[in-house]
Amino acid sequence: MKFTFITLFENLMKPYFTDSILGRATSEELIKLEFVNPRDFSKDKHKKVDEYMIGGGAGLLMSAQPLEDAIKFVKSKNQNTHIVFLTPAAKKFNQNDAKRLAKKDHICFICGRYEGIDERIVERYVDEVFCIGDFVLTGGELVALCLSDAISRNIAGVLGNEESLSEESFEQGLLEAPAFTKPNSYENLNVVSDFLKGNHAKIRALKNDMACFKTRFFRPDLYRKYKPLMKDKR
Fold first, then answer.
1. How far apart are the first and last CA of the chain?
2. Which parts of the chain are beta strand (E)?
3. Which of 48, 88, 144, 175 could form a disulfide with 215 if both were Cys (CB 3.0 to 4.6 A apart)?
């Protein structure tokens, strides 16, 4: 998998891929990185990449020409590049999106700044748009890192133990069950006793019940979707 980030601030992003799981994945070339700065494509003598909005409005907008030429540069090397724009005006990214996009060969994230980008770029070049929540950030870089992290974990070989993917939150429509480690008793708080008895079938059932309770409390929206699935299984 290759990730390309069209961004004005690549130094904000590069360190994220130097350590831990993604650091190993990049060193083993399971994922490859490219950073493209729209400023390098600006035809303005001062290398400007922003303009005031037509029709008025607070703030500046990333202008079309530098972005278009940056995208053309990226696509000139791979016409199958999947272009993603990161914006609050989009559907929320989820785990199914991460698994689906992990099958792509090349994903290019457009990281907006200021008040966003010229909408004509979105209409002409973007394949998908995503957000990560109902809030606004100063730029798309953090969102791109979130998405590339989630996608990378679903690429074969990136995780040390790929079985862990099947037990994570959202995989079965529920949040992940509570987990514990040694010691069995800590500050007068004890691990659920059935976890210590070695009955794996009972532990799996208990974890499923705990996941249901946790999802019902923290994410009732997910639980409402999961309840019809429980009835179908019966």
1. 40
2. 2-6, 32-36, 50-52, 60-62, 82-92, 106-110, 128-131, 185-186, 189-190
3. 175
Give the model confidence (pLDDT) of 195-233 as tens digits. Answer: 888 899 999 999 989 999 999 999 898 888 877 555 555
pLDDT band at 169 (very low <50, low <70, confident <90, very high): low
Take residue 195 and report the two structure tokens written for it: 């976890």
- What lies within 8 Å, CB to CB, of 181 at 6+ separation is none
pTM, whole model, 2 decimals? 0.84
The first and second tokens of residue 27, run together, are: 């060193």
Residue 192: CB partners within 8 Å, gap ≥ 6? 180, 206
DSSP state of 60: E
Q: Which token pair is 181?
A: 């480690």
For residues 126 and 121, give the distance between their C-alpha atoms in angstroms, rounded to a whole number. 7
DSSP reduced 3-state for 93: coil
Q: What is the mean pLDDT of residues 47-61?
A: 85
**Cα–Cα dist 81/86, whole Å:** 16
